[in-house]
Write a structure and sequence with these properties.
By secondary structure, the chain is of the alpha/beta class. It is built from 18 helices and ten strands. Strands 1-2-3-5-4-6-7-8-9-10 form a ten-stranded mixed beta sheet, sandwiched between helices. Helix 10 packs antiparallel against helix 11 (about 325-335). The two termini are about 35 Å apart.
Length: about 500
């Protein structure tokens, strides 16, 4: 039932072009951000942070509800700024978001401080933020560890009426947990609210215009911002694009198709590299067999937890986000059929952000709350059941679980769909897509660029989720845009390596 980050996004856009009215302009931020040193945050993420980077943390206070910016309650949005000690010709701040929804921009900024080329870090402070409801900001947390264990471990394709009813009950229980705790405040965790927070961050950083790097769901945040505040955009890189115009069903089906295609690419690599792939020559048969076996007699891991069909599929999903994990996936499935579930559970737990004590971060709480709040037209349960049956044929590994958005189908909160329209008045926006991307399939890249009206597509013929800074070609094209505002020529495509 819990499937894939960034593609749990089941958007149903409002077909309009919004205007950033004065009543919703950022609160006064003349004092900026009160930064404090926080090298411990970088150390916790990286182990050994770069010696030539300083790390500072701060908070920007924003209205809980941007419809009532004056006089209402506020919440704090957590920031981290990574600054190279030998900057030259500094341009300003590069605001970053990893997607999810639910991913920590604070942690992403630490990773990018060590992973981006010096050409970028010497010109920009790297500033990450945890959106409202996420991580170090005011968290939304409404699922228990036991509920998340049940959700990840549940059968990804409950066929019998009894099994399906059990899945429906779990989805309703999880949805109600959020409703009981947050009530009408659930709508305040929408993407549009978070996009307005971004403009408050821009003002607090002292930037007249925003430079932004958003991955995955972060492309949706960037697209909504560009519609709301088009004249405040300096340069936006939207990498791993989401098409905001897709409805719930179309968005889910696009992702099911994307994961099937990515798995086919993995299976082809496995067949052609049998020496590296212990489940060659037929990886699909091996994985299908592993999931079926896990339904009948799951292998237990070192902690006694059963590696059920749901956990096996979660490990597969996790491994398709990066080609570097393909060998790990093949080895994990081979180990599982030999009676060792440790590596399958390790892959799954890394994706789910579940620690060895069985405790979860709030990643998937925020993921569900944002997705369900954004989605104005989740199909009812009986419609999802029909989609499950249909997509089992079209997308046998990932279709049924993608169809069963049972939490949002029974969501108790009010919805707040984001706008889906042109960014009139914005400069060119770089939209990056990867042809083998499972979570945000490449077909959505030109769609987002077209919707914005100012989008310029950059294509990477690679595997996995997102592109920058994977190769020299991609890195050079993105850096020229970020630093010099030079957009790639129309149709620019970078090879896999």
């Amino acid at each position: 039932m819990v499937l894939a980050l960034a593609g749990c996004v089941s958007p149903n856009g409002q077909w309009s072009t919004p205007v950033a009215d004065k009543a919703r302009a950022p609160l006064a931020a003349a004092g900026g951000v009160k930064w404090r040193p926080c090298p411990d945050v970088a150390k916790a993420s990286l182990g050994r942070p770069p010696a030539n980077v300083t790390y500072e943390c701060g908070t920007v206070n924003v209205p809980r509800d941007w419809a009532k910016p004056n006089g209402g309650k506020q919440l704090g949005v957590a920031l981290l700024r990574a600054r190279a000690t030998h900057q030259t010709n500094r341009i300003g701040s590069l605001l970053v978001n990893p997607g999810g929804p639910g991913g920590s921009g604070v942690e992403l900024a630490t990773y990018l401080s060590a992973g981006l080329p010096a050409e970028t870090t010497q010109r920009f402070d790297i500033v990450g933020f945890d959106p409202r409801g996420v991580g170090r900001s005011e968290q939304v947390k409404c699922f228990s560890d036991a509920q998340l264990d049940a959700s990840f471990g549940a059968d990804p394709d409950p066929v019998s009426p009894a099994d399906f009813d059990k899945a429906v009950t779990l989805g309703r229980t999880m949805a109600q947990s959020c409703g009981d705790k947050y009530g009408d405040d659930l709508r305040l965790f929408s993407t549009e609210q978070a996009a307005r927070d971004m403009d408050a961050i821009r003002a607090a950083l002292g930037e007249q215009k925003l430079t932004y790097l958003g991955y995955s769901y972060g492309t949706l945040l960037g697209a909504v911002y560009a519609q709301l505040f088009p004249t405040r955009v300096r340069a936006f890189v939207l990498d791993g694009a989401i098409d905001p115009t897709l409805g719930s069903v179309a968005g889910a089906e696009s992702q099911a198709k994307g994961f099937e295609r990515a798995f086919d690419n993995f299976a082809a690599w496995c067949r052609d590299n049998a020496g590296k792939c212990p489940i060659a020559p037929d990886a699909r048969a091996a994985v299908t067999s592993a999931i079926d076996s896990a339904r009948r007699s799951p292998v237990r891991g070192p902690d006694g937890r059963a590696a059920t069909a749901g956990w096996v599929q979660t490990a597969v999903i996790a491994s398709l986000y990066s080609q570097e994990q393909w060998i790990q996936l093949a080895t994990a499935i081979d180990n599982l059929r030999k009676g060792n579930a440790a590596s399958v559970l390790r892959l799954a737990d890394s994706y789910a952000e579940r620690n060895p004590r069985g405790q979860y971060s709030n990643l998937f709480d925020a993921n569900m709350v944002v997705n369900c709040t954004d989605d104005g037209s989740t199909p009812p349960v009986d419609k999802l059941r029909a989609l499950q049956n249909d997509w089992r044929t079209k997308y046998p590994l990932f279709g049924p679980s993608t169809a069963l958005n049972l939490v949002c189908a029974q969501w108790p909160g009010k919805r707040d769909p984001y706008p889906a329209g042109a960014a009139k008045g914005a400069p060119p926006i770089l939209v990056v897509g990867t042809t083998g991307d499972p979570a945000t399939p490449y077909e959505q890249t030109p769609k987002l660029a077209e919707m914005l009206g100012v989008g310029v597509v950059l294509t990477w013929q690679g595997e996995g989720h997102t592109a920058y800074p994977q190769t020299r070609c991609i890195t050079q094209a993105v850096n020229r845009y970020l630093i010099d505002l030079t957009v790639p020529a129309k149709g620019t495509t970078c090879p896999a390596a």
